[in-house]
């Protein structure tokens, strides 16, 4: 069921913090032309709900369990390209914005913006327009290029969260040696002395 058949823009929300999720749902639900059809707490569930509901717009945070908002955006673009994605996050970093746009996001808003901007962004991306915070968009031109591969980023993120080499290897079905090689490459690219420092630097730049 689409916006054309219901008269409303159908939205799915993905946000792991219950209070924020409820607030966003309430803010959008008071709009006469927007209907929140589902609000979920993790990326994997969001992907399932998008497949079931086929909403016009998905509003998602970046940091979530199961699938990150960026991973979710890429999967939605691949599987359900008719659904447009707006990312709402605290990360005011050009690295995250660049990765979001590369993943297929149509909008990128910061959580400290006025609430009315979210509804406006939903309407605009539903009209095939792009919505990006202008100050952050200007910074992207001067931002460093992300040197990490997807696999290096995946492994470095897990290492930064405290997983051991063996745990990462089991989870990703790789050998311990392969995981160590990816970590060594990531550490070298970041100019760091260890995995923790590399993870911190990459996160600061918006690359994780």
Automatic annotation (TrEMBL):
Stretches assigned to the Response regulatory domain: 10-126
Segments forming domain HTH luxR-type: 141-206
GO MF term list: DNA binding
Annotated positions of the 4-aspartylphosphate modification: 61
Keywords carried by this UniProt record: DNA-binding, Phosphoprotein
Pfam families per record: GerE, Response_reg
Protein name: Response regulator containing a CheY-like receiver domain and an HTH DNA-binding domain
């Amino acid at each position: 069921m689409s916006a054309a058949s219901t008269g409303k823009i159908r939205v799915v929300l993905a946000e792991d913090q219950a209070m924020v999720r409820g607030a966003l749902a309430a803010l959008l639900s008071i709009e006469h032309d927007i209907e929140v059809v589902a609000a979920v707490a993790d990326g994997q569930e969001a992907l399932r709900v998008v497949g079931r509901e086929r909403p016009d717009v998905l509003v998602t945070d970046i940091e979530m369990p199961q699938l990150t908002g960026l991973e979710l955006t890429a999967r939605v673009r691949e599987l359900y390209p008719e659904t447009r994605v707006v990312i709402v996050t605290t990360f005011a970093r050009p690295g995250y914005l660049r990765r979001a746009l590369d993943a297929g996001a149509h909008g990128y808003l910061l959580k400290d913006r006025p609430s009315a901007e979210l509804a406006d962004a939903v309407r605009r991306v539903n009209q095939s327009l792009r919505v990006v915070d202008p100050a952050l968009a200007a910074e992207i031109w001067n931002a460093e290029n992300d040197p990490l591969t997807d696999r290096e980023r995946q492994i470095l993120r897990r290492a930064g969260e405290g997983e051991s080499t063996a745990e990462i290897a089991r989870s990703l079905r790789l050998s311990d040696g392969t995981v160590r090689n990816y970590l060594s490459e990531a550490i070298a690219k970041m100019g760091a002395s260890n995995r923790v420092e590399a993870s911190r630097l990459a996160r600061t730049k918006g690359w994780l």
